[in-house]
Amino acid sequence: MGIKIICQNRKASFDYHLDEKFEAGMVLLGAEVKSLREGRANLVDSYARIRRGEVFLHSMHITPYPFAHHMDLDPTRTRKLLLNKREIKRLIGKTEEKGYSLIPTKVYFKAGKAKVEIALAKGKKKYDKRQALKEKEMKREIDQARKRGRY
Predict the structure, then answer these.
(1) Could you say which of 14, 31, 79, 146 would form a disulfide bridge with 68 (CB–CB 3.0 to 4.6 Å)?
(2) pTM (2 decimals)?
(3) Which domain holds residue 80?
(4) Residue 45 neighbours by CB under 8 Å, 6+ apart
């Protein structure tokens, strides 16, 4: 079975230098899984933290499933991420370095299981962002010129 992408954090690659990426499972409730299957999730302003040897995802918004009347869940509640001990130890070592944080980049279903891709990220400075915009603009202009046959 393939991968079905639910949502992506496109702004993460603009705001951060993404170094390593890890795939993690999520501990969810049934109504949250149904909302994810409908694509009702948002990763904007979400982040991951390590507490007592476990990784948690904060501020990820999953819109409540409209037909689940028996549960009243907080849409931005903290959710536990499932990783190997070896991966968690690696993340602990890296996040203790100055400037590194854990940022979720995408949520998807893989073989029927909800997964989140988290990346070790280092914040970009304002001049790095401006440089990235300049490069993107130049690439776009070159592609347009090629399309018109000038090169």
Answers:
(1) 31
(2) 0.79
(3) 3-123
(4) 59
